[in-house]
């Protein structure tokens, strides 16, 4: 698969087949994630991969804390978003809602409980960065995550970045013995996407270039 096809086709998967992913395939994807560029080649990204019983243990804990302490999916900003951004969020939710309604689940429940269970994916990845790094280095981690998502897609695997779970970072750190000096910045679900599920039957669109691009000559 060429890079442009992978970039065009990739989309977040929110329903997965009950089909194992081989450790060799997982490791190969991480080798590609590690090829991302980073400032002074510091490679500040770190990944904790959970599978099988360990993933189930993590999901049980997340479901428990979510039931006790509900958080909802949001942009995480301290001030309201300017309209051009909030419109994009609404548009994405509008694309998802009709499909999710076919699952007979309230939308928020689907996203929140789904995120806390990695949407049933067999692999749950926790992305961390050492707290010693300044915020700008989070950009490097994001680049690596992009490589990871594209490499997974090229191998026929689905992914979904999951930021919601960072609200439960302390619990995740506890379950997986992630030391205090590492900050949990994201999770990613990984597995074979269930293409037949309505949860995967939509694709978000993107703004035209004119919205994100300024040319000076
Ligand atoms: C940093 C980040 C955090 C995200 N957090 C969540 C999440 O908690 N739950 C979820 O269902 N999707 C989450 N997503 C997926 C986005 O909703 C998705 O990427 C966006 O709507 C664009 O759709 P696409 O990935 O299908 O292109 C997250 C994506 C990113 C990049």
TrEMBL record:
Keyword terms: Flavoprotein, FMN, Oxidoreductase
Domain Nitroreductase residue range list: 8-192
Name of protein: Nitroreductase
Superkingdom of source: Bacteria
Keyword Flavoprotein: yes
Gene Ontology terms, MF aspect: oxidoreductase activity
Database matches in InterPro entries: Nitroreductase, Nitroreductase-like, Nitroreductase/BluB
């Amino acid at each position: 698969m060429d890079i442009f096809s992978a970039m065009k086709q990739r989309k977040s998967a929110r329903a997965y087949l009950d089909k194992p992913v081989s450790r060799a395939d997982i490791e190969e994807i991480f080798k590609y994630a590690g090829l991302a560029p980073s400032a002074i080649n510091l490679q500040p990204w770190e990944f904790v991969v959970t599978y099988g019983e360990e993933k189930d243990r993590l999901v049980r804990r997340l479901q428990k804390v979510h039931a006790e302490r509900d958080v909802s999916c949001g942009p995480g900003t301290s001030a309201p978003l300017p309209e051009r951004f909030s419109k994009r969020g609404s548009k994405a939710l509008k694309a998802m809602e009709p499909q999710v309604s076919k699952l007979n689940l309230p939308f928020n429940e689907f996203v929140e409980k789904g995120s806390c269970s990695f949407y049933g994916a067999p692999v749950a990845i926790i992305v961390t960065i050492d707290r010693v790094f300044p915020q700008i280095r989070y950009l490097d981690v994001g680049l690596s995550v992009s490589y990871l998502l594209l490499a997974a897609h090229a191998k026929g695997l689905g992914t979904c970045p999951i930021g919601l779970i960072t609200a439960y970072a302390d619990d995740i750190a506890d379950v997986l013995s992630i030391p205090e000096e590492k900050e949990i910045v994201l999770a990613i679900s990984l597995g074979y996407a269930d293409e037949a599920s309505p949860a995967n039957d939509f694709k978000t669109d993107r703004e035209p270039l004119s919205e994100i691009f300024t040319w000076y000559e």
